[in-house]
Amino acid sequence: MTGPRHSCGVVGVSSKFDVVLDIHRSLRMIQHRGQESAGISVFDGSGVRTVKGDGLVQVALNENNMKDLHGTSGIGHVRYPSASSKDSINAQPIDMHTSHGTMSIAHNGDITNYSELRTNYLGQGWSFLTSSDSEMMLKLISKYMQQYKEPIKAIRSMMSEVDGAYSLTILVNNRIFGVRDPYGFRPLCIGNTGDGHILVSESTAIESLRGKFIRDVMPGEIVEITDSKILSYPNPATSPKAHCMFEWIYFARPDSVIDGREVYLVRKNVGMILSKECPADIDVVMSVPDSGRSHALGYAIGAKVPYEEGFMKNRFVERTFILPDQKQREEAVMMKMSPIKSTVNGKKVLIVDDSIVRGTTLLKLIGMLRDAGAKEVHVRIGCPPVIAPCYYGVDMKTREQFIANKFSLDEITRRMGADSLGYISIEGLVKAIGLPESDLCLACVNNRYPTHIKGEVHRFQSTLQDDFDKTGQSKCKK
Ligand code: SF4
After folding, report:
1. Class of domain 261-477
2. What separation in Å is there between the alpha carbon of 53 and the centre of ligand 1?
3. What backbone torsions phi and psi does residue 442 show, to the nearest 5 degrees?
4. Tens of pLDDT, residues 341-355
5. How far is the C-alpha of 312 from the C-alpha of 277, rounded, in Å?
6. What is the 442 CA–ligand 1 centroid distance (Å)?
7. What percent of the chain has pLDDT over 90?
8. pLDDT band at 465 (very low <50, low <70, confident <90, very high)
9. Is the CB of 444 under 6 A from ligand 1?
10. Ranges of each domain in the chain
11. Which CATH number fits domain 8-239: 3.60.20.10, 3.20.20.70, 3.40.50.2300, 3.40.1280.10?
12. Is 244 a catalytic residue?
């Protein structure tokens, strides 16, 4: 709820039958990953055709612009802009016509060496239509197609030039490829739809097609799907993994399973661990709907205190994420949420949210709980303090924006008007996810980056800057 904005979701489907409706439905299932624009590219038998537009899937891809779109292989994309600008020209999929046919790409993540690559290739006479790192990847694949005349080698060569986070679906004429960067920052999984196969950011989309989840694409793997086969080209090298912890904490739907861990269960674990790390003398646990709900339920179970709905959400107010500035988003929150008085009035209330970035929304919500008669308001957060920017596809770009960098825990508690504030520890978060810490990216909470970023500390680096790694302990202020 008060967490960061995400970047994108991707899908690719190959089937015996027309794939357009399957892609459309899958994009709606991953709509939460991006609401700025949506698009579909299909191979229609003679070439690749793309339809895309601004807004939600059902607006961007409607009866009018989709009526002539047909094909048995295609890819799709929903987008929230991150590294690129918000221009419509950066909507995806992005197409390119080459001597080897038409290619189209859909990308989730950010390439961290994009500026260097762009400068380098501009110097070699290349031109770019967009400011998107996805176009760079498509151009690199095209360059290597000239050399190898074969997509797998071309994609692998592109991967050797780019750094950072990318889960991709790529259409090369009628062939569909899925790619996950060697660290596996962003999710991508494979399913069987009954009539073919699907690649998609989150497993919940597979179920919506009444399909069966098969497996996650492995970090560094390239897969090709057809209506009857999955061809795998694993990463030839071994590299450390760095799955983004925010996928479980905030971005993904609770009913998705990412890298073997169900999002809902992880969030419930977070709440249960948080209840032990940061207990409080309270009457009721409630959530910031909707993203804090599973964490709050876990807290209530762990603390053996009743869970109640404490805020009613008005679903007909415009979506806060499409509003252009922070102030308008905050005002929309006031219109969107109203407290349920019987949960709150005269009670010692504990409210759980998934994460805090700026903290402005939570401040307003606490004020609303006080106005509704809460005797005490305690706040618990299912993510350690966010202190460092993300370079891997999440809209958290500067250290100045994080409340945890501006104020101490005492000051944040006071400024928010809370009686107590507690964050889960990094150790607790890792335990809740249930994967080894070395397989996770935790850079935005521990300031140690899994890839080399100029001016930042690498996670295997041991220097004086390690002092800046100020979290790791349970953060709880009563
Ligand atoms: Fe995810 Fe944070 Fe790593 Fe970005 S820095 S990939 S948000 S864990």
Report:
1. alpha beta
2. 28
3. -130, 20
4. 999 999 999 999 999
5. 28
6. 6
7. 78
8. very low
9. yes
10. 8-239, 261-477
11. 3.60.20.10
12. no
